[in-house]
Write a structure and sequence with these properties.
CATH class of the largest domain: Alpha Beta
Radius of gyration: 31 Å
CATH topology of the largest domain: Rossmann fold
Number of helices: 30
Strand order of the largest sheet: 3-2-1-4-5-10-9-6-7-8
Number of strands: 10
Shape: elongated
Largest sheet: 10 strands, mixed
Distance between the termini: 64 Å
Length: 755
């Protein structure tokens, strides 16, 4: 951080030289570039400093703008400050355009970070905290606005609009600041942390609805009941349509752009277009564009396809360019010199006190009404007091529309900075007094298991099947998994006869799609997850080709599910299966139908056996088996085989094994049983001795299992091969089999894919 002064001087001096020669009447691209460089560099350096001392980076960007503005640079080097940021309207319009676009993109990103499922899990307490936490400071803010002296009003005729702006600025917590601080203090997954984040989400959503309506009133210049009714009705209709028809439409647009375009960043372009359209729609109904951008972000964030990939692409551009420019411009507009007057400084301190007291008392009251303890309500009151970026955006709108003057704008920004900077230490102190309950400990353990899990991270399924019994069986399994996870699914159907591709292949593909759909409904019903949503299925009829899977895999899939008969009754896989796994750089599963599932006479519930060995491959197989057991409402047995009939061991080892048997085996089994607990799957543990393949075959027969799920690892060679034990089971098992491989197949000889 010692290089900050030198860096700023190196940036500002060349710009001032160019600015001296620039015509004051015409905009200069060089000054514009210098403004960008100064805001970016200063915002980045101070943002880094803030993060290192436990504060949000946006505060550093805001303070960076203050340093570059009239408060610091303008006071120390006024000529340099005026050269870099001239008052010419044309020059200001260039950088303001970046800042205004940044507002929409910031709200898009905020919406994408809004996880509505968090609200569902703790909705009663969250709504109580949010509503009470908004109502009390909003009412106090409106009263303060009505009592403000005329000198602090931009337009005395718009006092009510100013009061509404002030009430909104005092009432809303920042959905970007609160989760960051809660995560930093280690309470992100605790009950009080979840309620705090859910309340911040509700705060932000209600806040942007309120501010969009207030901005509409500000545009009309007065409170027009007809205009107010139109805005309220239009907002209600817009939100209702967005979260019903709009949700599916946005998802289809994102998926279409991802699957059909071959150019780079096509999905990002689609998201920006959706954001712009929704912003224009809200403007058309008399509401500000910010609401459309925020709702667009929520819908994009709920899209079940490539959300993490999209988030990374968008976040980089927004965080690196638009955030430093917008918050830097907000700080640049702030003139702390106005606080030098004792009466204005007193008003600022009073506003900070009213904002803090109102938010704390409202959130504390809401927590108590929502059934929280006194200590939890105290923590909620401290945590909800962070304003940050939200208030800066609100104040910027008010200033640009002439509702707030420079003095009141500076007062609101100061209030936002002070409450945000004071929130982390107060919250840390309050949270350290909250003990961890047994229910929280169990939930945290479950979430840790899911975070490291294989199946929970599958976002999208690719299914490659033909019309054989194994193809239909794989379609059924994939449908159950897709329904349970709410994962969009693409089915590539390999028809038997290429020359009959257009007719019979299409009919077979439709049959396969029907199987997937019906199974997906069963899987969704069995999981009792209300937020899973409808599974979207795309059907494609293709001729067998490695390129088909390779090209489709580029669109982003978490698992390839293959359904195809083996090459023979022996232990080899069909070349088409090998082609498919070679073309997919990710986890895959191969399903083979036997017994009742081959004959089409089996019931809907699986009776699954999964061998476990303690390896990562066996854990993946167990996770998939648990997911299938849950989705089909079936049963699951975990088998661990120790030793071997032909193992040569000394009599000392045999005695030791008899005295302390299966200690390691018990640990392996306990881990698998623990994996099934969060999903309500009761796993029967079994430990057997002997040859693994023979023990598994014997257990399949004795337990009358109809499905064997086994985690495997591909071995080097010219043919797809998982090892001797899976090969023996493939040849001898009488029930259906699913092999699950967590790693892709690389570098296999081309003879393995030759026709």
């Amino acid at each position: 951080m010692r290089i900050l002064p030198a860096a700023l001087v190196l940036l500002l001096l060349p710009v001032s030289v160019f600015a001296a020669d620039a015509s004051p009447s015409s905009p200069s691209e060089l000054i514009f570039l210098g403004q960008l460089l100064a805001l970016l560099a200063c915002g980045r350096l101070l943002g880094e400093l803030m993060q290192r001392i436990g504060q949000p980076a946006v505060m550093g960007q805001l303070i960076g703008g203050v340093l570059l503005g009239p408060s610091v640079l303008g006071a120390l080097l006024p000529q340099l400050q005026h050269s870099l940021f001239p008052a010419a309207l044309g020059q200001k319009a260039m950088i303001d355009a970046i800042a205004q676009l940044g507002i929409l993109l910031l709200l898009l990103l905020t919406g994408m970070e809004t996880d509505l499922s968090v609200v569902r899990t703790s909705r009663k307490a969250a709504f109580c905290v949010s509503i009470a936490g908004i109502f009390v400071p909003f009412l106090l803010g409106v009263l303060v606005g009505e009592l403000l002296p005329i000198a602090m009003l931009a337009d005395p005729g718009k006092r009510l609009i100013t009061a509404l702006f002030l009430g909104t600025a005092l009432a809303i917590s920042s959905v970007k600041i609160v989760p960051m601080v809660v995560r930093e203090v280690g309470f992100l997954r605790r009950n009080v942390g979840q309620i705090m984040i859910a309340a911040a989400i509700i705060d932000d959503t209600i806040g942007w609805i309120i501010i969009s309506i207030v901005l509409g009133l500000a545009r009309n210049g007065a409170v027009d009941l007809l205009s107010l009714a139109r805005s309220l009705l239009g907002t209600a209709v817009f939100i209702a349509v967005s979260f019903t028809i709009g949700r599916h439409l946005v998802f289809r647009i994102i998926r279409w752009a991802n699957d059909q375009f071959v150019s780079d960043f096509a999905v990002v372009t689609a998201i920006l277009v959706v954001t712009g359209v929704m912003a224009l729609l809200t403007a058309a109904i008399g509401v500000q564009t910010v609401l459309g951008a925020f709702i667009a972000g929520i819908l994009v964030g709920q899209s079940p396809i490539l959300t993490r990939h999209i988030d990374q692409q968008l976040r980089g551009l927004i965080a690196a360019l638009f955030m430093p420019v917008f918050f830097g411009m907000a700080g640049l507009t702030t003139n702390l010199a106005v606080l030098g007057k004792p009466n204005l400084l007193l008003v600022t301190f009073g506003l900070i006190a009213i904002a803090s007291l109102g938010k704390f008392s409202g959130a504390f009251l809401g927590g108590r009404l929502g059934g929280m303890t006194r200590a939890e309500s105290l923590a909620l009151g401290c945590g909800m007091n962070a304003r940050g970026s939200t208030e800066v955006i609100i104040a910027s709108f008010g200033l640009s529309m002439g509702v707030l003057n420079q003095t009141l704008f500076t007062t609101i920004v100061t209030m936002a900075v002070v409450t945000t900077l004071s929130m982390p230490p107060l919250l840390r102190r309050a949270l350290t007094r909250l003990p961890l309950t047994s229910d929280e400990a169990a939930r945290l353990e479950r979430e840790e298991i899911e975070e490291r899990g294989f199946v929970p991270n599958i976002e999208r399924l690719l299914v490659a099947v033909d019309a054989s019994p194994s193809g239909l069986f794989a379609s059924r399994l994939a449908g159950l998994l897709a329904g349970a996870r709410g994962a969009p699914t693409t089915v590539i159907h390999f028809d038997y006869e290429p020359e009959d591709h257009s007719q019979e292949g299409t009919r077979q593909a439709e049959r396969t799609k029907t199987v997937v759909k019906k199974s997906a409904e069963l899987g969704k019903d069995a999981t009792s997850e209300s937020d899973r949503g409808r599974v979207d299925i795309i059907n494609k009829v293709e001729k067998p080709s490695e390129d088909v899977i390779t090209e489709e895999a580029k669109k982003g899939y978490g698992l390839l599910f293959i359904g195809r008969e083996p090459a023979s009754e022996g232990d080899t896989f069909h070349q088409q299966i090998t082609r498919s796994v070679l073309g997919f750089a990710g986890p895959f599963a191969i399903a083979i139908a036997r017994g009742t599932y081959r004959q089409g006479t089996a019931g809907s519930r699986f009776k699954i056996l999964v061998p476990v060995t303690g390896t990562a491959a066996s854990r993946r197989g167990a996770e998939l088996a648990i997911a299938l057991a849950q989705a089909s409402r079936g049963s699951l047995s975990a088998l661990h085989v120790t030793g071997g009939e032909n193992s040569q061991r000394s009599w000392q080892r045999q005695v030791g094994a008899a005295l302390a048997p299966t200690t390691s085996a018990d640990a392996i089994i306990r881990e698998i049983v623990r994996l099934g607990d969060p999903y309500g799957v009761d796993i029967k543990a079994k430990i057997r001795r002997g040859s693994p393949s023979e023990a598994i075959l014997r257990e399949l027969a004795v337990g009358n299992h109809n499905l064997l799920v086994m985690g495997v690892s591909p071995r080097p060679g010219d043919q797809l091969f998982f090892g001797e034990i899976p090969a023996a089971l493939l040849e001898q098992a009488q029930c259906s089999i699913v092999f699950v491989a967590g790693e892709p197949v690389y570098g296999r000889a081309q003879t393995a894919v030759a026709d």
